[in-house]
Amino acid sequence: TADAVTYTWIAEGDGNWNDPANWSHDAKFDNACIGYPKDAASTVVFTNGTKATIALAESVKFATWAINVSDVDVTVVGDGVETASLSGNLTGGEMENAKWTFKNLKFTEADGITLGSTIAKSHDSFVEFTDGATASIGVNLNGDWNTGALLVNGTNVAVKATKGATLEITRGKADICAKDGLVVDDAKLRYLIVNLAYSDTAANRNI
User: pTM, whole model, 2 decimals?
Assistant: First the structure.
């Protein structure tokens, strides 16, 4: 059966993704769930103020992972083998000083990465893929940009690909709407799409 459970990271500091002691959950009983986010029906939650480096050594799926929190610095580090992967939907909104980093792993994201929106602004935040990570980004149906692949809308906000990472945009007609920046530094950005449109209203045009 599907593990439709909400898991919240509770470890004080670093830890392993697959350690149930690092997560709380909303299942009725401990033995009624896997114990950590792994199933495609599960929900991942990190609360305001979380600071952690999390080791990942297996294939993990989830339904949603809300990144609209503030004062977080979370890095998920793969073990560098093919099994280290994340698959699911990152959902955004308003956040402040939020830093999400994915290192040395494969990240497959079905519906797009959304930072901010037309009504909820984000500040001094980023999602970064680095150190050999690969990210496959699908189509985002958020806000006014209803055919967009990436929506970056806020102050000092960016989606970053650095240090050998590969960022792919993979489905359909896509707008890259970058108010503050889509940053590609020593990395690969591949457009596997039709009818790409790019709009940048700020000075940052690092693609």
Answer: 0.82
